[in-house]
UniProtKB/TrEMBL annotation:
Gene Ontology MF terms: ATP binding
Keyword set, alphabetical order: ATP-binding, Nucleotide-binding, Transport
SMART domains xrefs: AAA
Pfam families cross-referenced by the UniProt entry: ABC_tran, DrrA1-3_C
Name assigned to this protein: ABC transporter ATP-binding protein
Keyword ATP-binding among UniProt keywords: yes
Gene3D superfamilies for this protein: P-loop containing nucleotide triphosphate hydrolases (3.40.50.300)
Length: 310
């Protein structure tokens, strides 16, 4: 349905996007991961026909959007990272306004707005001003705006940033429903690795403007198939404990997610004895340990050297 071919974008001699290739099949949910500054937002802006690339092409159903941007604009819904709503209007008024922009016929608009309000769970608040909404409600309305014209493809750029867990779960379930029930194609970016694991069929990992890994979840995880991940929970993080772990032979990486620490080592290496000895020497209380196959986040850290939120 969508194909990105050797796409580049240069700003003042700096390549924000450096020859990326990616594709989406109809009905897929595909994740695009990368730390801040990786080039995701620039790539999305080009795919959305908002800015032109320096070179390369974006094709929708085998038609270049550079020559015919309306090819994608007619079938695309966008959920931007920043809230894009009129705060002094009600939820219904926002939907009606954007519906008219999409040239939805007046006779159809009321029905479309009612359907979207039900989908995003805001029927009871439809007459309230958006400025009175919580962050999660605004995010849900933002998604509603993107769905009004029944797009075949929707791009969701970090749609759950800064919201409460209940709203986040509601949004994730909505995305799942759109994909499974309406066969909507979704390109999804997030700072939360578990969201991408839950929603996406395939994943692209981007850093420094390049696609550095791609594949199904299992294919991505297989990058570290010869290694194991040891999760350690402690009562209090101590720098000396972490430094000592990093100095253990065969330890490939130590990453910190307070209050947990993840240690990556080759599968055949047993270092639990070393870990407990270091804990004793540094007066660190270990509350739990778990050995597992490396996760997508472990692979991400391995490839980029940075946490997703960095």
């Amino acid at each position: 349905m969508l194909e990105v071919v050797e796409l580049t974008k240069t700003f003042k001699n700096k390549k924000a996007v450096d020859g990326i290739n990616l594709y989406l099949e109809r009905g897929e949910t595909v994740g695009l991961l990368g730390p801040n500054g990786a080039g995701k937002s620039t790539a999305i802006s080009i795919i959305s026909s908002l800015i032109k690339p320096t070179s390369g092409d974006v094709r929708v159903q085998n038609k270049s959007i550079l020559k015919s941007p309306e090819t994608i604009r007619n079938i695309l819904g966008i959920v931007p990272q920043e809230i894009a709503l009129y705060l002094e209007l009600t939820a219904r008024e926002n939907l009606e306004f954007f519906g008219r922009i999409h040239r939805i016929q007046k006779k159809d608009l009321k029905k479309k707005v009612d359907e979207v309000l039900e989908l995003i769970g805001l029927e009871d608040r439809q007459k309230d001003l958006v400025k009175t909404f919580s962050g999660g409600m605004k995010r849900r309305l933002n998604i509603g705006v993107a769905l009004l014209h029944e797009p075949e493809l929707i791009i969701m750029d970090e749609p759950t940033v800064g919201i409460d867990p209940q709203s986040r779960n509601y949004i994730l379930e909505t995305v799942k429903r759109l994909n499974t029930e309406k066969n909507m194609t979704v390109l999804y970016t997030s700072h939360y690795m578990e969201e991408v694991e839950y929603l996406c069929n395939r994943i692209y990992i981007m850093d420094h403007g390049e696609i550095i890994a791609s594949g199904t979840k299992d294919e991505i995880k297989s990058i570290l198939s010869s290694e194991q991940s040891i999760s350690i929970k402690v009562d209090m993080l101590k720098g000396e404990f972490i430094e000592a772990l990093e100095a253990v032979p065969n330890v490939k990486r130590v990453s910190v997610h307070d209050p947990a620490i993840t240690v990556i080592v080759p599968k055949q290496v047993y270092i639990l004895k070393d870990i407990f000895k270091i804990a004793e020497d540094t007066n660190t209380q270990i509350t739990a340990t778990n050995i597992e196959t490396p996760s997508i986040e472990d692979v991400f850290l391995h490839l980029t050297g940075r946490q997703l939120r960095n």
